[in-house]
Specification:
Length: 414
């Protein structure tokens, strides 16, 4: 799912090759299936591709891909590019990119891209690592052809209020299909794992979270360019929708003068959206709306120099933005739910209402020792669970048995 600070993709390959072979499909299939090929090849599907430019899934795919490359794998990443024409290939940082042109926007474009990428991958017998289940109906092809497919099942996407009834129904059906056709399923949070166990056998589900880099320093000039004082503001990065409880956060913060600022990132259009308007109207003069900021270096610096990170997400499993805050050593003020409690642990104070936000902020602003203790807990929590080395290593362990099928439990062959 796109992050609120997502940018348009910059496709700058290191080297470019010719368009995909014009040989007949049957010949390419025979060459691939019976000719010489790299013993450890994985094809990554379901994201916009690399380099990452769209948020959590893309960032995860890129980091996993680079880790596998360093571990000696041949990694093929399917990348969505605008336009029409043939599928082409190039390389980027040692990764093979398959560039798939798509001439539609939105969900239709995503479906077109997924159909093309799955058809391309199905012409090979390599392991597939698929991020997301939105078009799992197409993954039936891999199942029928006996191509191993490990699927990251994302959150319980069909249940989110922001989707209309039709899209919720489509997502629900595809979730069921994904649980059936995937050889193994990845849950990004223990709560998601528990949920998936109502859909598939526990033996085919593994919890693997998102990762984030460890941030130990960041330039102050980036922060000062926005008129902010390091350590004298809080950061909130979230899509401006009700399920992220931004209104409650802003209302609670604005109950009184704080002596610190609340920095809110995201695209707000109060003239077009009732919820956006309510958030803006509830804000005190100490609330700063900086708009969408798309540079990861800037968002990392904003987090690193903030007094605390405010996280209002109520659904969705392990949230990448929260993990990034832990990696920056941020004390956290988070909405009180099972998702956030497991991720943030001892690094957070929790809230349910605007009154809770008000009370927690009073504690944070007045108690430097509390801030320091929460920050230390954030770094410890990140180091224990959310480094990319740890996360990507877990992905590799899930993929390795498919290189040696004898190592797989019998039921995962089926």
């Amino acid at each position: 799912m796109p992050h609120p600070s997502a940018a348009a993709p910059a496709r700058v390959p290191e080297t470019t090759t010719e368009a995909s072979s014009a040989a007949p499909l049957w010949r390419r299939v025979l060459l691939d299936r019976f000719g010489a090929h790299h013993p450890r090849t994985v094809r990554i599907l379901g994201t916009h591709g690399v380099p990452a430019a769209y948020g959590g899934f893309e960032t995860a795919a890129e980091n996993v891909a680079l880790f596998l490359r360093d571990a000696g794998w041949r990694v093929v990443v399917y990348c969505q590019v605008p336009g029409t024409g043939p599928v082409t290939t190039d390389t980027w940082r040692g990764l093979e990119r398959v560039l798939v042109p798509v001439d539609r926007d939105g969900w239709l474009g995503t479906s077109q891209f997924d159909l093309k990428t799955i058809a391309h991958a199905a012409a090979h017998d390599d392991i597939c690592l698929t991020f997301g289940y939105n078009t799992a109906v197409f993954n039936v092809a891999q199942r029928l052809l006996g191509i191993p497919n490990v699927i990251n099942m994302d959150g319980i996407e069909w249940s989110r209020a922001r989707w209309g009834k039709l899209r919720q129904a489509i997502l629900y059906v595809n979730e069921r299909i994904g649980c059936f056709v995937g050889n193994h399923l990845i849950a990004d949070h223990p709560v998601i794992n528990d949920y998936l166990r109502t859909r598939a056998p526990a033996r085919k589900i593994t919890t693997v979270t998102y990762g984030a880099p460890t941030v130990t320093e960041a330039p102050t000039d980036v922060v000062e360019a926005y008129g902010l004082v390091p350590g004298r503001y809080l950061t909130l990065i979230a899509r401006p929708i009700p399920e992220n409880t931004i209104l409650e956060i802003v209302e609670g913060f604005s109950r009184r003068e704080r002596g610190v600022e609340l920095v809110v990132l995201g695209g707000y259009k109060p003239d077009e959206d009732d919820y956006h308007r309510a958030v803006v109207e509830a804000a005190s003069p100490e609330v700063r709306f900086l708009g969408g900021i798309y540079d990861p270096a800037v968002t990392a610096a904003l987090r690193f120099h903030s007094l605390a990170y405010v996280h209002g997400h109520t659904v969705g499993g392990t949230n990448p933005s929260l993990v990034e805050a832990l990696g920056a050593g941020n004390p956290v003020l988070a909405h009180d739910n099972a998702y956030n409690r497991w991720v943030a642990g001892e690094a957070a104070l929790f809230f349910s209402t605007a009154d809770d936000v008000d009370a927690a902020l009073e504690r944070l602003v007045a108690d430097p020792a509390l801030v320091a203790r929460l920050g230390e807990a954030a770094r410890a929590r990140h180091a224990s669970e959310f480094t990319w080395e740890h996360v990507a290593g877990q992905y590799e362990q899930l993929l390795l048995p498919y290189v040696d099928p004898a190592a797989l439990p019998r039921e995962e062959h089926q």
